[in-house]
Every structure is written in structure tokens, then in C-alpha cells.
Amino acid sequence: MSEKGGPSDRLRDSGREGRPTGDGTAVDSDAAVSTEDLLRMLADRRRRHVLRYLSTTHAAAVSDLVNHVQTVIDRSTVDAESVAIDLVHVQLPALADSDLVEYNRRSKTVRYCRHPGVERYLAETREEDY
Predict the structure, then answer these.
(1) Which of 3-12, 52-61, 96-105, 106-115 has the lowest mean pLDDT?
(2) Residue 2 lies in a domain
(3) pLDDT (tens digit, 9 = 90+) per residue, 41-95?
């Protein structure tokens, strides 16, 4: 396979798919996400909060994620519309390109894809740490 572009192109073309879990609420992702991609995804504060929220709810409406992110980080500095624009156009597509979430733009829902690196990070940190 020739390299078409950045890491997200390689992931999209890799042919790997998440597998439904036993309870049908989340999807397991295999470990094909590179360490570099994983660290890049965890480097953004809003993405960390989205992943933590989804790790407990397994799936959520975009509006719920916007409310959560605005409440825990941006309450006094940024309006909900700005948070929504950033999540919808930047953060959620980036997480989806890295196969850490499934983002359905039509239904405006996001489903968490379990990943060992994310799980380790979440287990070792608290929301207050970031």
C-alpha cells in the first residue's frame, strides 16, 4: 500500500474495523493506532474530556458532549456555540480519523471505541489533572 498522506489516511485505508462488545454499547479498537497519533489525540484538553466522558457513557449526543466540555473547561471563557463548532468541525473528526470514536454526523452521535492506550491514560489520571 502506498502512503497517501498523513496518519489518518493510513488508518482509514487500513481496513480495520471496531468490533461490537458483549454489551453492545461500545466498540473495541485494536492497537493499530500509532503511539504518535494517540499522544496527539490526548494532547488536546477538549479531546481528553470527550474521551473520559465517553468512557463512562459509551455513546453520547454531540449536544451532551458540548454541555460537558463547556461545563468542565470553558464555562466562563467560551460560549457553547464556539465549543460546539470546535467539537463538530475539529475535535470529533480528529478522534474519528484516529479510530478512537465513531462519529455519525447525520445523527449527531458519538460512540467510544475502546483503545488500550486511552484506557491506560484514563486509569492513571483524574479529570482534575487536566
Answers:
(1) 3-12
(2) no
(3) 999 999 999 999 999 999 999 999 999 999 988 677 888 899 999 999 999 999 9
Handedness of CA 93, 97, 99, 102 (dihedral sign): positive
Which residue(s) pair with 59 in the sheet? 111
In a domain, 4, yes or no: no
Instruction: Choose between 54 and 18: higher pLDDT.
Output: 54
Long-range contacts of 124-130 (CB under 8 A, 24+ apart): 127/49, 127/52, 127/72, 130/45, 130/48, 130/49
| Length reported for the chain | 130
Residue with cell 475539529: 90
Would you call 92 exposed, middle or buried from its count of C-beta atoms within 10 A (0-12, 13-18, 19+)? buried
Q: Does the predicted TM-score (pTM) go above 0.85?
A: no
For residue 82, tell me if it sits in a domain: yes
